[in-house]
Amino acid sequence: MSRRPSIAATLQSHATNNTGNIAKCLFMNAEHQLIKEKHRALASTRCTRDICQPSRAIHTDEPRVGENRSLESVCQDADDFLRDIYDEGFFPNEKPLEARLQAVHAEILYGAIEGVARGDKIQTRLGGNWTQTYEELEFGLRRAWRNARKCITRNHAEELKLCDLRSVTSSEEMAKELLRNAVEAFNEGRIEPTAFVFPPRTIDSRGPMIWNNQILDFAGYEMEDGTILGDPANVDLTNAVIDLGWTPPQP
């Protein structure tokens, strides 16, 4: 019989220290150090003895859209983003990078106000928004897709097209632009990967929101006998849009 420890035992020995507390992850090694040196902003795994966070599509501690953030964290993220894309060859040299950093910091500071940030219970300075150029946004989206967890098609990241809809200001415009540009992205079956970007939320607001999980989907109707016609997952959404005035098509 082999005397080698099992994989489970090996993982457990790396996951705990002599005091029984959670220690560093098995993969906190030389390779991880190289990644940290290359990429300034890394999401924490927050792995525990009971939960393996990388196995989840959404981490339990992952920041949610619509939360206020401190001025320092917004500025730091902007710095990390611009320096990361500089490392990827976006800026020809450090001079335009430094000029862009100064402009972005000024824009964030201009929109900053007093408020309560995520995770805090005291008043602090909240960071304002800053506007990425079209090129910065497209570059960042492609890198985000390339680095995404659990995406089997991320090898197509450099083909991703940006549909810049940051000028849209109403729900009606959102719906029209989504449908119009979805047809273009479908491209008669030769699908072109496309990201639709709407205006960012401002401090203490929700910003643009889309109710349905997919842009195009099947409606769901509960019949008189209790059976479901269409997609059962969309019954509540279908009822909601009917209440808002939508008339379902008749056979």
Automatic annotation (TrEMBL):
GO term, biological process aspect, one: nitric oxide biosynthetic process
Enzyme class at the top of the EC tree: oxidoreductase
Gene3D superfamilies: Nitric Oxide Synthase, Chain A, domain 1
InterPro entries, per database record: NOS, NOS_dom_1, NOS_N, NOS_N_sf
Listed cofactors: FMN
Assigned EC number: 1.14.13.39
GO MF, one example: calmodulin binding
Family listed: Belongs to the NOS family.
Protein name: nitric-oxide synthase (NADPH)
Taxonomic source organism: Lepraria neglecta
